[in-house]
């Protein structure tokens, strides 16, 4: 699974960091999301999908 | 699951669009109609006071979804059609072209509209910032005049001030309170915001009110109660918003600064409300509340739409932890939780030169909220304390000032 983020959309609420901390964090510079890994294995796919679903701004795109 | 033949959503706002999407995702297979008084494709409002105002983003970039999204949802989009009345018993909406729309389920998401400057004639230079045309008109008049006076130092006024200043305009902001956003953010954050705008060259005038707008056929200036005249052709009024409920006046629905809803966002059987227009019963606060926040529109729309399709025993109360953010110049303000005036406040970090602030809020011995400026990682840490309703004393121990 491939992951893409649209940093312009990010509102910094950090739901993704709570759900999938090994994939997402917030930048110290501007508070917008930073993608830590652009690919997820099957084991992590559910957490990444949940992070995308919980993002209020739809800033996370998941390509299966 | 309750099945509805026809569901109408009034207001193609953020809440309206998200409600429509949730209805489909939750299994609604009948007719779905999304009605918007605005003629534009449904759009997102935060960029109107930011990227759209500077011209960094064009109109299509603020659309919530691409046009083909609505056909893929099998959602019938009625644009430029205003709902003018509701009969909740006959389950009929009347639109401004006298067409009646019958429904089995209804979601009210008509949002809010800017409060108007009282006792002021409507002059072309007096502008508000709520809609896409508002933002485009403000952009072109600030560009043309090179100067703007903002009345009201709320989030929208301050964001517009920051972006206009960045584009080279001369900007003054008039606020009757002693500091910008003081009621919303508290004394430390509002002092920091005041300094931020002053340092960036905005002429911020607090503790003073507007006496009147000068000019006959158009604006020539803003006269303050202390006698000062701020010469300008463009005025942005940002003094808050009121829920758009006039169309419900004869509906029999209970309206009191918003559509009154229960804890499940229901205003009447089969009729729900979400977003800026909804005043719902918060079980954690034990009171009705209304929020004009972006994330509230998203979360409440989802909850209201899901509850509509659930049997009464399965419905879930809507009781979010509110989240607000604001970007001004290069700082990001983040606020979490319901804020009450007598909350306990603990300042964990305050660095006015770095424009950094970290505050924890609590009530009844528990952590209930957080405010950070330029401290996104700290925000994440405090959010965990808020979500876990951590004991105030242990949170204070673990996070020394």
Salient structural properties:
A: alpha+beta, two-stranded antiparallel sheet, globular, B: alpha/beta, 25% helix
Describe this structure in words.
The complex is a heterodimer of chains A (64) and B (401). Chain A has 64 residues and is of the alpha+beta class. Chain A is built from two helices and four strands, in the order E-H-E-E-H-E. A two-stranded antiparallel sheet of chain A has the order 1-4. The radius of gyration of chain A is 10 Å and the shape is globular. Chain A starts with a strand and ends with a strand. The mean pLDDT of chain A is 95. With 401 residues, chain B is α/β, with parallel strands linked by helices. Helix content of chain B is 25%, strand content 30%. Chain B has helices at 14-25, 51-54, 67-72, 132-145, 155-166, 182-185, 187-199, 294-309, 376-387, 392-398; strands spanning 6-10, 31-36, 76-79, 83-87, 92-95, 100-102, 105-108, 112-114, 126-127, 147-151, 170-174, 203-205, 210-214, 221-224, 229-231, 235-237, 241-243, 259-260, 266-268, 271-273, 278-282, 287-289, 323-328, 331-336, 344-351, 356-363, 366-373. In chain B, the strands form seven sheets. A six-stranded mixed β-sheet of chain B has the order 3-2-1-7-20-19, with helices on one face. Chain B has a five-stranded parallel β-sheet with strand order 9-16-10-11-12. In chain B, strand 5 and strand 6 form a beta hairpin. The radius of gyration of chain B is 22 Å and the shape is globular. Chain A binds chain B through residues 8, 11-14, 17-18, 25-28, 30-31, 56, and chain B through 46, 51, 294-295, 298-299, 323, 325, 330, 332, 334, 374, 376-377, 379-380, 383-384, 387.
Order of helices and strands of chain A: EHEEHE
How many extended strands of chain B?
27
Q: Which residues of chain A form runs of ≥5 with pLDDT under 50? A: none
User: What is Rg of chain A?
Assistant: 10 Å
The proportion of residues forming helix of chain A, as a percent range, comes to: 25-40%
Q: Count of helical segments of chain A?
A: 2
Q: How does the helix and strand content of chain A classify structurally? A: alpha+beta
Give the biggest sheet of chain A: 2 strands, antiparallel
**Strand segment tally of chain A:** 4
Distance between the termini of chain B: 50 Å
Termini Cα gap of chain A: 5 Å
**β content of chain A, as a range?**
15-25%
Largest interface: A-B, 14 and 19 residues
Query: What structural class do the secondary elements of chain B suggest?
Result: alpha/beta
Mean pLDDT of chain B: 95
Give the neighbour order of strands across the main sheet of chain A: 1-4
Q: Could you give a short account of the major beta sheet of chain B?
A: 6 strands, mixed
Tally of DSSP helical segments of chain B: 10
* Poorly predicted sequence stretches spanning 5 or more consecutive residues of chain B: none
Dominant shape of chain B: globular
């Amino acid at each position: 699974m491939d992951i893409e983020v649209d940093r312009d959309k990010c509102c910094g609420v950090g739901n993704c960091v709570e759900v999938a901390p090994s994939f997402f964090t917030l930048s110290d510079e501007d508070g917008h999301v930073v993608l830590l890994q652009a690919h997820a294995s099957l084991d992590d796919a559910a957490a990444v999908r949940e992070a995308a679903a919980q993002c209020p701004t739809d800033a996370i795109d998941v390509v299966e | 699951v309750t099945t509805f033949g026809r569901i109408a959503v009034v207001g193609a706002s953020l809440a309206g669009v998200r409600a429509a999407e949730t209805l489909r995702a939750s299994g609604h297979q009948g007719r779905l109609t999304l009605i918007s008084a605005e003629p534009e494709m449904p759009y997102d409002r935060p960029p109107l006071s930011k990227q759209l105002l500077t011209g960094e983003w064009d109109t299509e970039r603020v659309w919530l979804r691409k046009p083909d999204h609505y056909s893929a949802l099998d959602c019938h989009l009625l644009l430029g059609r205003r709902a003018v009345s509701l009969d909740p018993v006959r389950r009929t909406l009347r639109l401004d072209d006298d067409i009646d729309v019958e429904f089995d389920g209804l979601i009210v998401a008509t949002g809010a509209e800017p409060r108007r400057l009282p006792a002021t004639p409507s002059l072309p230079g007096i502008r508000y910032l709520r809609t896409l045309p508002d933002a485009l008109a403000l952009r072109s008049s600030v560009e043309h005049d090179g100067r703007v006076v903002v009345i009201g130092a709320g989030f929208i006024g301050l964001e517009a001030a920051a972006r206009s200043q960045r584009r080279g305009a001369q900007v003054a902001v008039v606020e009757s309170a002693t500091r910008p956003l003081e009621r919303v953010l508290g004394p430390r954050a509002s002092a920091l915001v005041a300094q931020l705008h002053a340092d960036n060259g905005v002429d911020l005038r607090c503790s003073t009110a507007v006496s009147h707008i000068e000019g006959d056929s158009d604006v020539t200036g803003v006269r303050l109660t202390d006698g000062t005249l701020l010469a300008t052709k463009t005025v942005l009024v940002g003094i808050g918003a009121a829920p758009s409920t006039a169309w419900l006046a004869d509906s029999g629905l209970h309206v009191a600064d918003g559509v009154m809803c229960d804890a499940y966002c229901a205003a009447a059987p089969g009729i729900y409300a979400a977003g800026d227009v909804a005043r719902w019963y918060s079980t954690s606060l034990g009171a009705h509340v209304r929020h004009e926040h972006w994330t509230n529109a998203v979360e409440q729309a989802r909850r209201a739409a899901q509850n509509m399709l659930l049997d009464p025993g399965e419905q879930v109360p809507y009781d979010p932890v509110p989240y607000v953010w604001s970007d001004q110049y290069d700082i990001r303000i983040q606020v979490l939780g319901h804020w009450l005036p007598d909350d306990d406040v603990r300042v964990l970090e305050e660095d006015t030169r770095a424009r950094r602030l970290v505050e924890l809020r609590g009530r009844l011995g528990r952590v209930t909220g957080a405010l950070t400026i330029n401290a996104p990682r700290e925000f994440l840490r405090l959010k965990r304390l808020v979500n876990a309703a951590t004991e105030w004393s242990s949170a204070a121990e673990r996070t020394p000032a």
